[in-house]
Amino acid sequence: MNTRLAELLAEVFGLRPAEIHTELQKSEVGSWDSLKQMDLVMSLERTYDIVLEIPDILRMTSVADILAVLKDKGVTFED
Questions:
Q1: What does pTM read for this prediction?
Q2: 24-40 pLDDT, tens per residue?
Q3: In the chain, what are the domain boundaries?
Q4: CATH 1.10.1200.10 is the classification of domain 3-72
Q5: Contact 7, 63 (CB under 8 A)
């Protein structure tokens, strides 16, 4: 799990970075509602200098999905 992304997700969802893992699903995070989804989108766009389209946003229902969307947008992870 990329440290920078884990910290971003932890901040958005009010979790500890250690709680973020690739298998984590939206349904397992009580705070992951539609408002937090938009907060997530804005944070990802700002952090990684990308633009997320509606299909990308709808696809992001787990940490693994977020990673896949970011990789599709050309984001590379070093750790």
A1: 0.92
A2: 999 999 999 999 999 99
A3: 3-72
A4: yes
A5: no
